[in-house]
């Protein structure tokens, strides 16, 4: 488990190098993006720019969180494979031999970053709604990224079992509440300073346990056989 912290630390350093300068320049960015407010009453001008800065921060944190997950899972694939397999062995029963491979991990990481960009853009758009924009953007972002994270983190166990996309969609639909709860809780932990670094190994364990639980859902059984 301790080795699982290393990929998170590396990813955190990389993202901090991009995120810290962005947050430090937030005032300049908001001034540049709202030149039409230069002649406004100071109270309303500052209120607009503070709100815009909050929305930018939310979008940046969403994208950073998704990128962190993608980068950490890619860098730490060997570490997380060991954690996942150890949990599978402890649980007993049907333990697949497949592991997905590096190319699968790379493809999923790229997809995760793309989805992160889309969620961040959506958060920006929602943030422009008067009065409720910032809180609505925050809630929407947590729920959407939570759903994506749950699918991504449980993907290791499902990929190893060669579960078809249709079966996987049925599985997620039948367990929507549990997956969303797990993903949203994980995303909120990731938003705590250094939380993502320390939570990621635990999230891999939790996702493996969750995957085994949802695989036991009576209404859904994978039609694709696991690796021999």
TrEMBL record:
<dbReference type="Pfam" id="PF07264">
    <property type="entry name" value="EI24"/>
</dbReference>
<dbReference type="GO" id="GO:0000103">
    <property type="term" value="P:sulfate assimilation"/>
</dbReference>
<feature type="transmembrane region" description="Helical">
    <location>
        <begin position="50"/>
        <end position="75"/>
    </location>
</feature>
<dbReference type="GO" id="GO:0019344">
    <property type="term" value="P:cysteine biosynthetic process"/>
</dbReference>
<keyword id="KW-0472">Membrane</keyword>
<keyword id="KW-1133">Transmembrane helix</keyword>
<dbReference type="GO" id="GO:0005886">
    <property type="term" value="C:plasma membrane"/>
</dbReference>
<keyword id="KW-1003">Cell membrane</keyword>
<feature type="transmembrane region" description="Helical">
    <location>
        <begin position="190"/>
        <end position="211"/>
    </location>
</feature>
<keyword id="KW-0812">Transmembrane</keyword>
<keyword id="KW-0813">Transport</keyword>
<feature type="transmembrane region" description="Helical">
    <location>
        <begin position="12"/>
        <end position="30"/>
    </location>
</feature>
<dbReference type="GO" id="GO:0009675">
    <property type="term" value="F:high-affinity sulfate:proton symporter activity"/>
</dbReference>
<feature type="transmembrane region" description="Helical">
    <location>
        <begin position="112"/>
        <end position="133"/>
    </location>
</feature>
<dbReference type="InterPro" id="IPR050480">
    <property type="entry name" value="CysZ-like"/>
</dbReference>
<keyword id="KW-0997">Cell inner membrane</keyword>
<dbReference type="InterPro" id="IPR059112">
    <property type="entry name" value="CysZ/EI24"/>
</dbReference>
<protein>
    <submittedName>
        <fullName>EI24 domain-containing protein</fullName>
    </submittedName>
</protein>
<keyword id="KW-0028">Amino-acid biosynthesis</keyword>
<keyword id="KW-0764">Sulfate transport</keyword>
């Amino acid at each position: 488990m301790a080795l699982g912290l290393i990929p998170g630390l590396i990813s955190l350093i990389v993202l901090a190098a991009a995120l810290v300068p962005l947050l430090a320049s937030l005032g300049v960015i908001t001034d540049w993006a709202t030149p039409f407010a230069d002649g406004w009453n100071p109270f309303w001008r500052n209120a607009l720019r503070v709100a815009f800065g909050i929305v930018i921060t939310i979008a940046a944190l969403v994208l950073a969180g998704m990128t962190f997950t993608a980068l950490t899972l890619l860098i730490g694939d060997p570490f997380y494979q060991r954690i996942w397999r150890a949990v599978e062995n402890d649980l007993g029963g049907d333990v697949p031999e497949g592991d997905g491979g590096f190319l699968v991990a790379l493809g999923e990481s790229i997809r995760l970053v793309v989805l992160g960009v889309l969620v961040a853009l959506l958060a920006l758009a929602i943030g422009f709604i008067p009065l409720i924009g910032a809180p609505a953007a925050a809630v929407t972002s947590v729920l959407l990224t939570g759903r994506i994270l749950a699918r991504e983190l449980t993907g290791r166990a499902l990929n190893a079992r060669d579960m078809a996309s249709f079966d996987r969609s049925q599985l997620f639909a039948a367990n929507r509440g549990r997956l969303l709860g797990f993903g949203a809780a994980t995303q909120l932990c990731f938003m705590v300073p250094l939380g993502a670094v320390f939570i990621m190994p635990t999230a891999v364990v939790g996702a493996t346990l969750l995957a085994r639980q949802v695989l036991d859902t009576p209404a859904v059984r994978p039609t694709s056989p696991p690796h021999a």
